[in-house]
Amino acid sequence: MSLGKAARTLVKPARGVVASLSAPTRTYAAVAEARAVLEQELEGIRAAGTWKAERIITSMQGPQINVDSSRSSILNFCANNYLGLSSHPEVVKAGVDALHSHGAGLSSVRFICGTQDIHKNLEQKLAEFHQREDCILYASCFDANAGLFEVLLGPDDAVLSDELNHASIIDGIRLCRAKRLRYKHMDLGDLESKLKESQSSRMRLVVTDGVFSMDGDVAPLTGICDLAEQYGAMVFIDECHATGFLGPRGRGTDELLGVMDRVHIVNSTLGKALGGAAGGYTVGPKPLIDLLRQRSRPYLFSNSLPPPVVGCATRAVELLLASSEIAESMTAKTMRFRNKMTQAGFTISGSAHPICPVMLGDARLASVMADDMLKLGVYVIGFSFPVVPKGKARIRVQISAAHTDEDIDHCVDAFIQTGRKHGVVS
């Protein structure tokens, strides 16, 4: 071997060693750079007054809760626990019973070995509750919305969506290949123009929240159904903030407005009024539900709902099927809060819904007022961008059937005291 070739042979491994030694350095530099970018983004959130701190609750969910560092119980006015069933003794017991009889979880997806008799029983009861042919359970309603549109709609179809629909609907629609048209919020004229524009599509689906969670306004379903029938479209509603308490029997927005037989597909949640644990579902025509079991990715690739969750939700639905008494108490309590707050000079968005947004406009003001309310024994949270549009910050109050009139009056008094402190009301 020549001297030059020997030298080159010795140098090659040395270069490899140098390269391997420098690789971690480059990696550490990349991590440091990413960390700096993230810290800058976080600092921007803090500076804008939109930082979302998580308060720690040390009790079960309910109209009164214990909050870490608080000396006494706090009135809770910002949970989705509309019917007070999250801590209902019968609901809790049903979850415990299911834990003992069916275990902590299935360790599997539904089609492998993750379907139990209690899952099928809950699906049957939900289909009965909504007066639809069949039902399919998901880990959440976010998953139900993520799993529906790409299965139902193809490139020859069109989906027409309200511009203020929930983020999970928006993300679900992004996954499908259908033509997407967005109509102005609850604007029937704009919806009709979009229906005319999409007349060449094979299938068309009008998509809307039944109740829009940030403002508490109810979709004009009667007009939407009229237009859908006129132009040969189907109607879908997301009922997360309506199931269990809107309508004479608490069936939701479609029952409230008398269009249960004209709305074709309903998605909703078990994580709000129906026990408050977790889970979502789709109810609708049996062929659609059968197809979702075959092709819906969040269903096929997520573990089945844990038995305790199924047990709690089943008992909650049974209570509502047996009586509408709890749901009927909501209207009077909702209007008590809305009327008293309006008389005090506050601007309350929406109408006749237990979501009662106290409109403030400024993000920092909403956050500071919420902190001051906590000092007065009332748990509320300020909502700001990106949860709501810039300039429309608010404190979203949510009334529960479990709240007493005294609870509501205490909340109003705390708002008046805090509002005067910050110049919101006189």
Helix and strand content put the structural class at alpha/beta
Q: Helicity, in percent?
A: 40-55%
Number of helices: 16
User: Rounded to an integer, what's the Rg over CA atoms?
Assistant: 26 Å
Shape: globular
Distance between the termini: 97 Å
Low-confidence parts, pLDDT < 50 over ≥5 residues? 6-11
Mean pLDDT: 93
Total strand count, please? 15
Strand content of the residues, in percent? 5-15%
Largest beta sheet, briefly?
7 strands, mixed
Strand order, biggest sheet? 3-11-10-9-6-4-5
Structural descriptors:
alpha/beta, single chain, 15 strands, 15% strand, 426 residues, 16 helices
What order do the helices and strands come in, and which of them pair?
Blueprint: H1 3-47, E1 64-65, E2 74-76, H2 89-102, H3 110-114, H4 117-130, E3 134-138, H5 141-152, E4 158-162, H6 167-175, E5 179-183, H7 188-197, E6 204-209, E7 211-212, E8 217-218, H8 221-231, E9 234-238, H9 253-256, E10 265-269, E11 280-284, H10 286-295, H11 297-300, H12 307-322, H13 325-328, H14 330-343, E12 355-361, H15 363-375, E13 378-379, E14 382-383, E15 393-398, H16 405-421
Parallel strand pairs: 2-13, 4-5, 4-6, 6-9, 9-10
Antiparallel strand pairs: 1-2, 3-11, 7-8, 10-11, 12-15, 14-15
Helix pairs in contact: 2-12, 4-12, 5-6, 5-10, 7-8, 14-16
